[in-house]
Design a protein that fits this description.
Elements (H helix, E strand, L loop, with lengths): L1 E5 L3 E7 L2 E7 L1 H11 L3 E5 L9 H6 L16 E7 L2 E8 L13 E4 L8 H10 L3 E3 L2 H4 E3 L5 E3 L9 E6 L1 H8 L3 H10 L2 E8 L2 E6 L2 E6 L11 H16 L2 H17 L11 H12 L3 E4 L1
Parallel strand pairs: 1-4, 1-7, 2-5, 7-8, 8-11, 11-12
Antiparallel strand pairs: 2-3, 5-6, 9-10, 12-13, 13-14, 14-15
Helix pairs in contact: 1-7, 5-6, 7-8, 8-9
């Protein structure tokens, strides 16, 4: 099976515990490599500049860059200041928008980081896909005078979306609501699966049921990319099994396995065996309620 991913590869400067490391990042990297670990083919729609020195490493790990992925402009570049589960995000450079045409992929993940996917491209994917997982963060992000990222209320067409992944702030800026009310509002906009991630608590709304899982307590290290690993695991599981409950257990199991590594950057991408083991354990712990 093949999963198409629309998102920028990024250069991430991650500052944590007084140390700063520079690593490849972005959903294109995290989702792409997680998808490869699930034995899926990856169709990567991204843009990188001549300063992206990690391209060869990602190709050695199985990712293929399309001919139109190269840009003469700098790669999208973030500075991340991390303290526990909290982080400050700064934009240092922004690459070109992604060019997209028709695809024969079995499913799509659209997860922009900052202004690389247009609403027109979003509509193209919507019209071209049977499975479409959407992380809206890049549509909500703005920068202040210091290039620090903040979120702003944004109206988006969310019809025909198989799954959306949001945290409490993103859900609020899409709906003006919080928690269950925000999830119901997203469902009414046309989303089949609403995936609501609030640190270690993950809730999924499907039809008239809310499912809740909690990642076990652990020392939280670098969380960069964990949401992307979660998205890719959900997408791959759902495309293979068509089982919503197993897919959310698989996604949460992937996030847990990534955090268990206590690694920084792409080194935290888990293997499929660890994900499978976590998912089987979590499957018996799911709580659900009617809405």
């Amino acid at each position: 099976m093949k999963l198409a991913i629309l998102s920028h590869c990024t250069i991430d400067e991650i500052s944590r515990n007084g140390q700063t490391v520079e690593t490849p990042g972005g959903p294109a990297s995290y989702c792409g490599l997680t998808t490869k670990n699930m034995k899926f083919d990856v169709e990567l729609h991204t843009r990188v500049g001549p300063d992206f020195k990690f391209k060869h490493d990602l190709e050695n790990k199985g990712l293929t860059f399309l001919p139109n992925s190269s840009s003469s402009n700098p790669t999208t570049h973030f500075l991340l200041n991390i303290a526990g589960t909290e982080r400050e995000l700064y934009l240092k450079a922004k690459c070109d928008q992604i060019e997209f045409s028709n695809s024969d992929a079995d499913g799509f993940i659209v997860s922009p980081v900052f202004d690389e996917v247009s609403e027109e491209t979003l509509d193209q994917v919507r019209d071209n896909s049977d499975f479409f997982l959407f992380d809206p963060q890049g549509f909500l992000r703005r920068i202040d005078n210091n290039n620090k990222i903040y979120l702003e209320k944004t109206l988006l067409d969310l019809s025909k979306i198989t799954a959306i992944k949001t945290d409490p702030d993103e859900a609020f800026y899409l709906t003006g609501l919080r928690e269950k009310e925000a999830m119901l509002a997203l469902q009414k906009k046309g989303v089949k699966h609403v995936l609501y991630t609030n640190k270690q608590s993950i809730t999924m709304l499907v039809k008239d049921r809310l499912y809740n899982l909690t990642i076990p307590n652990m020392v939280i290290g670098d969380t960069t990319g964990v949401g992307d690993i979660f998205c890719a695991a959900f997408a791959c599981s759902y495309l293979k099994e068509k089982d919503s409950l197993w897919a959310i257990c698989f996604a949460v199991g992937a996030a847990q396995a990534a955090l268990d590594t206590k690694a920084t950057g792409l080194s935290k991408i888990p293997n499929s065996g660890a994900i499978q083991q976590n998912a089987a354990y979590l499957y018996n712990l799911v709580k659900f309620s009617q809405v």
